[in-house]
Fold each of these.
Amino acid sequence: MIIIKSPREIELMRKAGRLLAHVYEVVGPLVQPGVSTKYLNDVCEKVIRDGGGVPAELGYGGYPAAVCASVNDVLVHGIPSEKKILTDGDIVSLDIVVTLNGYMADACRTYPVGITPESKLRLIKVTEECFYNGASHVKDGARLGDVSSAIEETAKANGYSVPLEYTGHGIGSEMHEDPYIPDYGTPGTGPILKEGMTLAIEPMVMAGKNKLRILKDGWTAVSKDGMPSAHYENTLVVTKDGYEILTK
């Protein structure tokens, strides 16, 4: 069942989203060569807690960190580590969920590190385009399949692929609510969107083939061909004529 949020609930999610946007404002400039992903995780956790929030990923299903920090060929769920030092040419996706006053906001940004190849910068740019092209179909009465199809078509038109195993999702007082939002789909199909639904739309785009393997830690999903991937996500609310991004 897809939950339609009340104006009060949307305002609480808006506040959580503002806190999460502030986290990215703080951590973004710190993504530099020589920095560990553990350091970035610790900064994010401090900003969240200083803002009165809780890092929702910490402990979720046993996940051991406040942030998912995925570098280069890691698609999602990279575990921050003091041993993972960023170097020139890397890209790193920071996927963060904040809980504030019982409601959540979820977002992801992929950052270039130092002097980065044009191929990786293009991947980051196209991934963000996938989000906005998908979101452009969001409004009361639209079909979710139109959103997913636009994400997939944008990725494929640029020579990229999207994973089948991981999806966006509804969000509210729980991190994962209905509906699931794949990065692939068929226009004119899927649930009908209604004003007040809150969605975490998150294109994950792979430069190579969409084949994955999970590392021994049970979390880290990497591309089998070693090609890089990027990830861009925002939490939004469906409005009568479109949408409002809550994590900006």
Note: The chain has one domain: 7-245.
Amino acid sequence: MTLLELKDVSVHYGRIKAIHDISFSVDEGEIVSLIGANGAGKTTTMRTISGLLNPSSGSITFDGQDITKMKAHLRVVKGISQSPEGRGIFPGMTVMENLDMGTFGLRNKSGIAESYERVFSLFPRLDERKKQLGGTMSGGEQQMLAIGRALMSQPRVLLLDEPSMGLAPQFIRQIFKIITEINAQGTTVLLVEQNANQALARAHRAFVLETGAITRTGTGKELLADPAVKEAYLGVG
């Protein structure tokens, strides 16, 4: 079943057209990856889905409802949650306080304890550092906190924007393993990631964005084997 759909969506920054009439869908239970170079429009796409940017044309549908003009905070309540590029944690707040911020969109407040249990099961390190200030944690730990905070609202679709950015290799492997587990638990994932190898290896389907337009689509395995994708994004050729 289609959970999220963008149809002919364009986004402008002033006179500059950053996204050019893109259309794609995300089915319930999938991991879908968006890959592309810096400036391709990946983060703009994610911010538009989450309601932080308004499309200049086109439509966004979530669970059968047109949400094109819906406010960002209402999209969280509806079931869309984002872990942004750069993590965006509150450095002067503790791990618990950061996670508390993620419960805003939780429709069933009695499920807060369940959300904590899930997050601490996925990220035991956060459980060990409940009282630690977010700003004193390592980059990998901060990324865990950002994803954990996004999960606190029990989203139906989790938007992950560059989760491996700036992380050491051991943390990258761990983060992607956890993303796979999050999906296996039933959460749909839309993943923006420059580490194309990792993103495509885990994706059910994937799209290549180039200068604001989708130029290639396929399963993760198909794009991993695509010679043009190998040369442009996988360092092969």
Note: The mean pLDDT is 93.
